[in-house]
Amino acid sequence: MALKAAAMPGLSGSVSFELGARVSKDLGLSAMDMPSFSGSRLQVKGGNKATLLMARAAQGVRSMATDVPSAWPGRAVAEEVKTRSGPKPISLIGSTGSIGTQTLDIVAENPEKFKIVALAAGSNVTLLAEQIRTFRPSLVSVRDASSVSTLKEALAGMDTLPEIMVGDEGIVEVARHPEAVTVVTGIVGCVGLKPTVAAIEAGKDIALANKETLIAGGPYVLPLAQKHGIKILPADSEHSAIFQCIQGLPEGGLRRIVLTASGGAFRDWPVEKLKEVKVADALKHPNWSMGRKITVDSATLMNKGLEVIEAHYLFGADYDDIDIVVHPQSIIHSMVETQDSSVIAQLGWPDMRLPILYTMSWPERIHCSEKTWPRLDFFKMGNLTFMKPDHTKYPSMALSYSAGRAGGTMTGVLSAANEKAVELFLEERIGYLDIVKLIEMTCAKHREELVVKPSLEEILHYDGWAREYALQLVESGSFRPAIVV
């Protein structure tokens, strides 16, 4: 089956019944008992039921227009690869976080290829000051006005100080800095949406490391990117792998996307033991060194469910044509299958710097030293193995596919509810098995107000709503957590 343009029939009221029984299977949440949200399951066996489905699906939907252009709907090949005469100017949002510091490592090693013109950071003023001294940006932004005086003190003695801005206004100005060619969005959460939109409107290409840009904002951001003719280049290892694999494919040549997953901390645990999980257990990732939140997402496999949604928006792939496979070694970062059944994979050591580098340098390939960028040693790498993911162990997969098919604001609600649920788990206010249950209850409630073609304001509104609703479920006592002591 050829991959179609990105469209989300789900709950839009424009369901195509040509998929027949497959739709019923795909929308079901059979991996666990989710009575409310799994009510969106399509059981198409007769005309009356189809009519009933349409009536239920349309409840609360304010727009029927669902077509969203994918980031790369056709050929992913540059017409002509030109080497820049000087370093590419980069704006970096989230400079003191994991993505930001790795981006700056790349810039430091390749000063002839990249230069930093603007930085936006949170509250880590000490690290930001070091970055300013090293990279000499003309503009920086900090989260709070209270940090400005501290930052200026830390920069004492510099011959030229950058312009310092604060808050939302500052981060937006960093994103649309007039000199920047590419903006690296390393910030976490929906706070990254406004600066990304500002960068797109200013004609900047996006090196995308902010998941919410597409998971929550896809229905709004992608038409905007198409309008302004900008490129959205994925910095996640999985989506970068897919992007690298499709370089040069003719239009219509892509058949299937295969996302690889490590399986997380509980890959080798029996399902029955998951009720005993403690926070410390969930933070033991077998391969990657990551932050606490993403490590828990890897344990639940919610990170892979969210990546399915991103792949749908990035590459225009139908959800039927995006698969997940557990690959314990994390050497193959993802694969694509072409129409003639060939499979193309991208391999490398688990290192986020490579996908970040490729988003910054595309369509060029930059030489990297073996000292800081170890080359893949096939003998050291050893065997590569694969396993089918267990839907009982990882119910987040079925929930993510269902939310993706619903489309609109549902995917943003899924992501925001997950963020709140993981936060509550890390605070030991809910148990590990409660995470997906809490997300499912939030998504089920949101069906009443689903907006298929949301504005930016509606996307941000429902992001906040999902977090508040998930918290209220726990604090009101209507959700009874199972906490392991």
Task: Describe the protein in words.
It is a single chain. The chain is an alpha/beta fold. Helix content is 40%, strand content 12%. The protein is built from 19 helices and 11 strands. It has helices at 21-27, 47-57, 98-109, 125-135, 146-154, 167-175, 193-201, 212-215, 218-228, 237-245, 279-282, 292-300, 302-315, 353-361, 378-381, 396-406, 410-426, 434-446, 456-475, and strands spanning 88-93, 114-120, 139-142, 163-166, 182-185, 205-208, 232-234, 254-261, 322-326, 332-338, 343-347. The strands form 2 sheets. Strands 4-3-2-1-5-6-7 form a 7-stranded parallel beta sheet, with helices on both faces. Helix 4 crosses helix 5, helix 17 runs antiparallel to helix 18 (434-446) and helix 17 (410-426) packs parallel to helix 19 (456-475). The protein starts with 20 loop residues before the first helix and ends in a 10-residue tail after the last helix. 47% of the residues are buried. Its cofactor is Mn(2+); Mg(2+). Keywords: Chloroplast, Isoprene biosynthesis, Manganese, Metal-binding, NADP, Oxidoreductase, Plastid, Transit peptide.
